[in-house]
């Protein structure tokens, strides 16, 4: 065989091996979602088996086992969808890698759920359904099962299409639909539903406005000054103190209130004290970090990375403390109903139920969270540490402002609204600067107005998809819940 022939055969073999490698990579890529589904089913089976071992042969034990599987399914979906709102901006700003974000979020979500998740939850979510309308124990259990399953199905669908939705609203819709199916329209508290519908508008608008105002402050006090480093040394400690104050108050209201009785005034006092302490402590830290930095915008990103990472971790802790009830509240209610034979407006959460919720959120985050984290962090608008910091600060301050005003808000809508607020502010600011430059340039070098309008900094397709998902979450979950209620009623005989 000649060298030429040998070379030909080796090249042919290389091409064949390359094709096999690409085929193997494609197979692994296609099978990756199936691995996640398999592990999710395994987690649900473990949750159901654990519930079976705990309840044993007690009357109604089968309902508890099924409810444990549904609760695990809901917790998985909360981890896959909701956690993106906390970690997406930090990942999009490259302050955290995807792996680092998942590790921090899983740890903080679990800690928040187990440490401050609360010993008591409302079983009829936010007073949606009058307790008397579901006084029959069996009807109550089937309604809670339907609410849990329908909410999980809707959040799963929203995650699949890439839309961050409020899991709280999904549970509210599930409870409402089951209540209507069980006892008619009169069972629902419509004024409460009206307040929740108002939050669809209030939450994202308020979050977006606060994030835009914060970004405007950073631009005009730090970025658009001649000596950026000196300005950063002056204002970044103030912003860190503000962040510490906001998050301390936020954690007190949303997380630690489950452990101790804390009113808004006390939370604000605690926040002010910790904010002042952290702001003073940040002065030497920022001065040390800024040594040798060039007087340019890229240097400023270094000073915002650590506060952004800390804020993402604190948001995850508060989210785990607050939203774990969405997964385990109906499950705890079913356990209570099977033990006592009746229903209650509030019940204590058994430890094993809380563990299912905390573990499910972390497992769902690890298996399915990256898709939504990437979408929130980089596909709506381009984020850097300063912009992402404004989003995180907006999430905390908006919750505090809403609590002070007595407005029902969604943390999901606030965080995503903050991302949109930053993006739309960037569009407005870019257009404003373009007009100013156009006025100072000769006509031949001016950018036409049509071209300026075409250069959007917020992806409209994501905006429309997310807005539509928010609007239909409650009615869609309610419809699914009514169907689930009738189906489960038939199955349970």
TrEMBL record:
Transmembrane feature ranges: 34-55, 61-83, 95-117, 137-158, 170-190, 196-220, 232-252, 264-286, 302-321, 349-368, 388-405, 411-428, 463-488
GO molecular function per UniProt: phosphate transmembrane transporter activity
Superkingdom to which the source organism belongs: Bacteria
Pfam families in alphabetical order: PHO4
Membrane topology: Multi-pass membrane protein
Compartmental location: Membrane
KW Transmembrane helix (keyword) present: yes
Record's keyword annotation contains Metal-binding: no
Gene Ontology CC annotations of this record: membrane
GO process annotations (BP): phosphate ion transmembrane transport
Keywords, comma-separated and alphabetical: Membrane, Phosphate transport, Transmembrane, Transmembrane helix, Transport
Entries under InterPro entries matching the protein: Phos_transporter
Family note: Belongs to the inorganic phosphate transporter (PiT) (TC 2.A.20) family.
Name this polypeptide is given: Phosphate transporter
């Amino acid at each position: 065989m000649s060298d030429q022939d040998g070379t030909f055969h080796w090249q042919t073999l290389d091409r064949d091996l390359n094709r096999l490698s690409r085929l193997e990579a494609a197979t692994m890529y296609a099978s990756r979602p199936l691995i996640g589904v398999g592990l999710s089913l395994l987690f649900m089976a473990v949750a159901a088996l654990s519930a079976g071992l705990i309840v044993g042969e007690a009357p109604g034990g089968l309902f508890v086992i099924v409810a444990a599987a549904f609760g695990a399914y809901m917790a998985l979906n909360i981890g896959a969808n909701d956690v993106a709102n906390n970690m997406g901006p930090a990942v999009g700003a490259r302050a955290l890698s995807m792996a680092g974000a998942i590790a921090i979020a899983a740890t903080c979500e679990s800690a928040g759920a187990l440490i401050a998740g609360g010993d008591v939850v409302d079983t009829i979510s936010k007073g949606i359904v009058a307790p008397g309308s579901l006084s029959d124990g069996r009807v109550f259990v089937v309604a809670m099962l339907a609410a849990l399953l329908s909410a999980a199905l809707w959040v799963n669908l929203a995650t699949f299409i890439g839309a961050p939705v409020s899991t709280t609203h999904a549970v509210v819709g599930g409870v409402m639909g089951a209540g209507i199916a069980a006892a008619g329209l009169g069972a629902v508290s419509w004024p409460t539903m009206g307040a929740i519908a108002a939050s669809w508008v209030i939450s994202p608008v308020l979050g977006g406005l606060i994030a835009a105002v914060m970004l405007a402050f950073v631009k005009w006090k730090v970025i658009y000054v001649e000596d950026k480093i000196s300005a950063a040394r002056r204002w970044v400690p103030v912003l860190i103190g503000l962040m510490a104050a906001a998050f301390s108050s936020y954690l007190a209201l949303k997380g630690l209130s489950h452990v101790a009785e804390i009113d808004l005034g006390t939370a604000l006092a605690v926040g002010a004290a910790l904010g002042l302490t952290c702001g003073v402590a940040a002065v030497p830290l920022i001065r040390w970090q800024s040594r040798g930095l060039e007087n340019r915008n890229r240097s400023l990103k270094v000073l915002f990375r650590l506060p952004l990472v800390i804020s993402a971790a604190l948001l995850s802790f508060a989210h785990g403390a607050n939203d774990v009830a969405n997964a385990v509240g109906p499950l705890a209610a079913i356990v209570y109903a099977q033990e006592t034979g009746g229903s209650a407006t509030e019940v204590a959460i058994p430890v094993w139920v809380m563990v299912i919720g905390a573990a499910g959120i972390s497992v769902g985050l690890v298996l399915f969270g990256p898709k939504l984290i990437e979408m929130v962090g980089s596909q709506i608008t381009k984020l850097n540490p300063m912009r992402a910091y404004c989003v995180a600060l907006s999430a905390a301050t908006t919750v505090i402002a809403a609590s002070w005003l007595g407005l029902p808000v969604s943390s999901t809508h606030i965080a995503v609204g903050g991302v949109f607020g930053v993006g739309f502010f960037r569009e407005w600011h870019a257009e404003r600067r373009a007009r100013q430059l156009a006025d100072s340039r000769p006509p031949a070098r001016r950018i036409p107005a049509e071209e300026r309008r075409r250069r959007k900094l917020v992806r409209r397709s994501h905006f429309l998809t997310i807005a539509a998902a928010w609007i239909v979450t409650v009615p869609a979950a309610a419809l699914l819940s009514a169907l689930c209620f009738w189906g489960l009623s038939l199955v349970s005989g």
